[in-house]
Structures
1.
Amino acid sequence: MSTPAIVCRDVTKSYLTEKTVTPALRGINLEVNEGELFMLVGPSGCGKTSLISVIAGILNHDGGQCLIFGRDPNEMSEEERTAYRGKSVGFVFQSYNLIPTLTTTENVSIPLLLNEWNRLDATRRAEEMLAKVGLTNKSRSLPSELSGGQQQRVAIARALVHNPRLIVCDEPTSALDHTTGGEIMELFRQEALNGNRTLVIVTHDSRIFRFADRIGVMDDGQIVQVASSPSELQLDKTTKK
Ligand SMILES: Nc1ncnc2c1ncn2[C@@H]1O[C@H](COP(=O)(O)OP(=O)(O)OP(=O)(O)O)[C@@H](O)[C@H]1O
Ligand SMILES: [Mg+2]
């Protein structure tokens, strides 16, 4: 039997601003197995980014329990959390978050340098990853010199470069054409199969649903359905397209 990599029990999160409280997660219950490619779909504002940020240890949840490989990031010391994020997690942000003053290779090298690789090995490994996402010829470019889809692929290379156990991606194919998006999904699939890594991928792109082992449907801060195939999905209330 496969082991759960992620176990969320009644996870809640609200954002507090000066005048308002916005509930983003209203009791999330979810299990994702090691080696599984799990997709998360749902309408804008339903809490997808909030949920994967909690799972990645970037955001504290308010209530419930979120065990990732048996530990709740909320209960880690600051040092443990930094180590968890730096070693075990690869995150593709919705807005890519590339460092504008660094070249493509330098951006992709960051997780390796944080894990104390020497610069030469880090550069070699970063270039290998860039080849896998089809960007060999852009290694010296700055993010501002790249198209949106190319920047997105740099962000994906950076998330995979240090072989993290958990890969969390926010709309990783949103700026990619059908063919490139399919190639990137093949790469993610191989990561899940070969490396026994766990992937949680937020998407609105129904063309990539077929790459998922299971698809969770979110609505208004909750998981309302988990489907084992795209044909089982009931997206009447939740699809954007
Ligand atoms: N930093 C924040 N401060 C206050 N409210 C926030 C913050 N981040 C998100 N929210 C609110 O929390 C809710 C969930 O937001 P979240 O970003 O998780 O949604 P999402 O499903 O990722 O949406 P999208 O598909 O548009 O990216 C929304 O109502 C949003 O307005
Ligand atoms: Mg989002």
Note: The domain at 4-230 is CATH 3.40.50.300 (Rossmann fold).
2.
Amino acid sequence: MVLLEEGPAASRFRPNQAHTARYHMQEGGGMVATGNGLLPIAAGRGVGGGTLINSALSFRAPETVLDSWAAALQDEDWSAAAIAPLYDEISTLIGVRRMWESVAGRNNQLIAAGAAQLGLPGGLAPRNTPGCMGCGECNFGCPIHGKASTNLTLLPIAWQHGARIQADTRAVEVLVEGGRAAGVRGLAHHPDTGEFVGEVRVRAPKVVLAAGAIGTPRLLWHQGLARSLGPVGDGLHVHPGNAVLGLHDDEIYLWNGATQGAYFTHPDLPGVLPHAFTAPPEACLAAIGAVGRDLADGLAKLPHLCGCVVMVSDHGTGRVRATRDGRASLRYNFEDADLERTKRGMVETARVLFTAGVRQVIGIVHDIGWHNSVESFEAALSDRAVDDFTLYAAHPMSTCRMGLDPDTSVVDASGQTHRLPGLFVCDASVFPTSLGVNPQLTIMAGGTRLGQRIAQAG
Ligand SMILES: Cc1cc2nc3c(=O)[nH]c(=O)nc-3n(C[C@H](O)[C@H](O)[C@H](O)COP(=O)(O)OP(=O)(O)OC[C@H]3O[C@@H](n4cnc5c(N)ncnc54)[C@H](O)[C@@H]3O)c2cc1C
């Protein structure tokens, strides 16, 4: 088995912001979907993919979601009960455990405490960071290898079983012979300069695309194979989100502690998942609009800020295509119902923060200002339109869906494309619906299910 990866090898990893954006984020961190709002979409790059730079939250999908997939696929192996042992296995391999108090940090503790006082489910979150020291830098790559990203966990297992990894090599073509996928052509480049250094051809009886829910359809559209395979690139979901920041009398230093280490849910808001976030000080200043004349005021507030993302399982959809030079061309339309649930999630998040002792809250919403009560914040949000919200997403999925019908899906329940034998997809593209929780654990558990079937396929 040979694995081609566009990004650099893990040994070239340098955990700092500029290096991460340039080398470890797809398209330099510059992917933006246009539509009825502007939506930046982040995805990781390198041996380890998104897990190199993700926040390590490790949630299991709601049982209702997996059971709905099993029903649509008429395949009980995708039910919550059947996937549970795979979640167990993966969780053990990547060291998932609930964040512990000593390194969680004030921001996470505050959100967990506010939710607990209101009797809401949640608390400190499950994460795959067995060696976490709480430096808050997961998104630039763990500087101490305390996060069990796949370059340290699953890929070494593949290596032990004979897989070979070719980094700095972009797959550009699925080779097709006699109506079957027969291999892949890739272009190798210099890891620093990006200069072309040679062509790689891998011949294989089974070809698995695992370039992520943007990368997989981007490759197929750029090659010109997409149209023959069904609705490739359609139905993009992303879990869009906004955030609420609070101002506390105590010093919180929200960039210290576990990057995203606390969460809560609300019984009236299924599919809405507020969870803590960490951001560097300069990003916090931008989030509260502390620029120009407001900078001095912002700097005074900075140590006292706490923050919580509000993410929704989206009904809105988009699509992935490729530009002539092989970059992603993305569209995404936010649905009114998602915006409404985002607002309601932000209001409940404000309630949690006030309960935890903050004096004021603000959303990342154009000119919304600080608010002293939940009621005032709710009123200020009520008439805001989608383009008032600074949106962000890092969970692209569903662009080569699993399904039974070749007209409405791209792959079957084994990950094999309906229309090209020997070509499989094994990444977040295959999710039949939006998931509702941060997806890495489900990608790994679902990938294990697909892997079992790909191994058996003829
Ligand atoms: C900043 C950030 C924070 C996140 N936090 C969390 C979190 O806390 N918990 C969670 O569950 N999820 C989180 N996620 C999401 C999660 O990391 C991703 O959903 C997951 O990694 C996607 O897995 P995947 O296998 O679909 O694709 P990816 O992990 O994106 O892997 C695709 C790989 O394919 C490579 N590639 C793309 N095109 C080509 C090509 N043509 N040729 C060769 N290689 C190619 C890419 O470089 C990449 O390495 C976060 C994501 C980001 C960006």
Note: The chain has a mean pLDDT of 96.
